[in-house]
């Protein structure tokens, strides 16, 4: 079954001519049973092209993100930014989910600073991604247009962090594949419009 996401252009929801940031998590990968951060896996299935204008299109350099961006927006120029890579899970990267350590007893605050051996914590990931996202916000505000980023669950949570001003709170969000999280951009900040939205 083909994965599809449709972005609506109706009044009040992402009109062209206003500052908007859209983040789309990549599609399902060809390695669905493992924790993939820096492990560069591809997609299980190429998504269907969209009909809306993404504005300025950015992507993580990860294969799964670039394949998603190319499928959703064929022929569109893509800016690759290495700061948008998923969290580096170090020794946990590529490990099957059922073989990972049990972290279910940790609070969100504890999990935010948990650093796998050889990797980075959620908090460190936020620090890495935030400058790139702030540049995207500035671009959207200065031009009064849309910036669309195709990346990872961690990237979406980093944008939620900038909007919510909380390092731990975004960890409470489950970010779905091929779904849009939308923000209205203001000078110096974001307002959350929707999370995991299939727009019609």
Q: What is the tally of beta strands?
A: 6
Radius of gyration: 16 Å
Which word captures the global form?
globular
Low-confidence stretches: 1-14
Sheet with most strands: 6 strands, mixed
Kindly state the percentage of residues in helix: 10-25%
Residue-averaged pLDDT: 90
CATH superfamily: Phosphoglycerate mutase-like
Structural class: alpha/beta
Tell me the CATH topology: Rossmann fold
- Residue fraction in strands: 15-25%
Describe this structure in words.
This protein has about 200 residues and is an alpha/beta fold. The chain has one domain: Rossmann fold. It contains 4 helices and 6 strands. The chain has a 6-stranded mixed β-sheet with strand order 3-2-4-1-5-6. Helix 3 (about 120-145) crosses helix 4 (about 155-165).
Summarize the model shown:
The chain is α/β, with parallel strands linked by helices and 200 residues long.
Keywords:
Rossmann fold; disordered N terminus; 24% helix; globular; 6-stranded mixed beta sheet; alpha/beta; 4 helices; 200 residues
Give the SSE layout.
Elements: E1 20-25, E2 56-59, H1 63-72, E3 79-80, H2 108-112, H3 122-143, E4 146-151, H4 153-164, E5 180-186, E6 189-197
Parallel strand pairs: 1-4, 2-3, 2-4
Antiparallel strand pairs: 1-5, 5-6
């Amino acid at each position: 079954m083909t994965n599809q996401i449709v972005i609506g252009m109706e009044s009040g929801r992402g009109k062209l001519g206003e500052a908007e940031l859209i983040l789309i998590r990549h599609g399902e990968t060809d390695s669905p049973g493992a924790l993939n951060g820096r492990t560069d896996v591809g997609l299980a299935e190429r998504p269907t092209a969209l009909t809306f204008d993404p504005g300025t299109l950015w992507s993580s350099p990860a294969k799964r993100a670039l394949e998603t961006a190319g499928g959703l927006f064929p022929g569109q120029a893509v800016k690759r930014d290495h700061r948008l890579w998923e969290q580096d899970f170090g020794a946990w990267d590529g490990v099957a989910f059922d073989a990972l350590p049990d972290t279910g007893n940790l609070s969100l605050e504890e999990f935010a600073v948990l650093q796998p051996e050889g990797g980075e914590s959620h908090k460190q990931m936020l620090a890495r991604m935030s400058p790139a996202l702030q540049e995207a916000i500035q671009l959207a505000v200065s031009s009064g247009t849309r910036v669309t980023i195709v990346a990872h669950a961690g990237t979406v949570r980093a944008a939620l962090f900038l909007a919510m001003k909380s390092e731990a709170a975004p960890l409470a969000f489950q970010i779905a594949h091929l779904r849009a999280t939308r923000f209205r951009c203001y000078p110096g900040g974001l307002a959350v419009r929707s999370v995991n939205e299939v727009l019609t």
